[in-house]
Amino acid sequence: MIRRFPDGFWWGAATSAHQVEGGNRRNDWWRFEQRPGATRDGRTSGDACLHYQRFDEDWALAAADGHRMHRLSLEWSRIEPEPGCFDAAAIAHYHAVLGALRRRGLTPLVTLHHFTNPLWIADRGGWENPETIACFVAFARFCAREFGGEVDWWCTVNEPEVLAFRGWSEGIWPPGKHDDSLALLVIANQLEAHGRAYRAIHEADRADADGDGRAAIVGLAKHWVGLVPDRAWHPLDLARAWFEDRVFNHAVLEAPRTGRITLSIPGAGSVSRRVEGLAGSLDYLGLNVYTRWRVRATGATPHVASRGAALTDLGWEIAPRILEPALAAAAASAVPILITEHGFADAHDAFRPRALVESLLHLGHAIEGGASVIGYLHWSLLDNFEWNDGYLGRFGLYAVDFDDPARPRRPRRSARIFARIARENGIAADLAAEAGLAL
Ligand code: FCB
After folding, report:
1. What is the CATH number for 107?
2. How many CB atoms lie within 10 A of CB 242?
């Protein structure tokens, strides 16, 4: 064994409802996809992976591969399709999903907001509207009461900063706006919602699903991205990289610790808010980590990959070291860290085996250096609908054939490699060699 992980380390994978389930027309993403040009390959989520029907088969794959935890999301628009009206069939469905996970020995980690909003929320202005905060908190409370007997691990919101910038600054996700000051407001409203949902979930979920003495363990998932100046000598690149790192990474990490939301973008204003109940609102911090970008203050593209670097199918730099600075930045949160997403778009599994093992060696190194990491959930179990990239980004441990109406799954080599790491709770020398690492 060249690397062992702490006892009880949570190994598993992650999915999100809209990306895998298929067949839901009640959320803002579905509506947005119908616009010509919304996705890069012109495809809509459609039936996605048919996971709404085939969830138990998918849990069987994860369980057979030694996963112990699975991160999934509950689709708000299915559970509450109209304000205050809860859909009995959708509720029964998610009870079946959670029951099936448990029967397969997988501990669920449930995300309550993974980018999608019911149409009625979107039509009232979505996260721009401060009333969405109370609506979301009510939904969180409902779910904590309804599903608390099956769920202990909760993730309130996924990547508030990514949702805000993609939807309100770049305009490539719903609602398709270009307004940085609104993007800041959208981050702030989601962070406030997190703080209030944290308290609501703890009040409503008193049922300890696994008998370990804790009924609710609540966090959020923060997307941490490396942002470095492209030209280290260029004052404008330096300044832009600093400001972006501040608003995207550090300000979001700080808010649930301090209770204060302080966000600003030069030229676009700022938001400063103290939120009651937000301070100390993390029982764990979820970190989603993929890559790093070099930041340029001039020219057409502000974010470029390092020159000569190997890139994923989506053009993101393959950066196996990146988990280390991510964990260093998150250390200030002073709570246990769970890697809630990390992975690579690689349809042919050409570089994923090696990049995955190399990344996990860096993760192990960080843990040895004192990082308090309790688990690693790979993005993703299955290839799925990758938002505006349509079906171009293939992140699955299992490949899904989206041209076949039956959506067959096929294990990639990475699934086998990851399974062995999960089962052995460590990385064996021969496995690292098999993945292509020269030690
Ligand atoms: C993250 C999202 C997830 C998936 C991966 C590739 O930002 O949370 O849904 O799209 O990126």
Report:
1. 3.20.20.80
2. 13
* Closest ligand 1 atom number to CA of residue 387: 10
Dist CA 35 CA 39 (whole Å): 9
CA of 1 to the centre of ligand 1 (A): 31
| Whether the predicted model's global pTM rises above the 0.70 cut | yes
At which residue do the structure tokens 């994978």 appear? Answer: 13
Query: Is there a domain that residue 439 lies in?
Result: no
What is the total count of domains within the chain?
Answer: 1
DSSP classification of residue 127: G
Residues 430-439: tens digit of each pLDDT: 999 999 998 7
Per residue in 324-355, pLDDT (tens digit) is 999 999 999 999 999 999 999 999 999 999 99
Range of the domain at 230: 3-434
* Distance in angstroms (rounded) separating the CA atoms of residues 349 and 410: 12
Q: How far is CA 290 from CA 173, 222, 237, 340, 345, in A?
A: 19, 12, 22, 11, 10
| Ligand 1 center to 160 CA (angstroms) | 12
Measured from the CA of 386, which atom of ligand 1 is nearest?
A: 10
Give the rounded distance of the alpha carbon of 166 from its chain centre. 14
**Whether 159 is catalytic:** yes
| Residue 211 alpha carbon to ligand 1 centre in Å | 31
With the most atoms of ligand 1 within 8 angstroms of its CB, the residue from 71, 72, 288 to mutate is 288
CA distance 75 to 16: 9
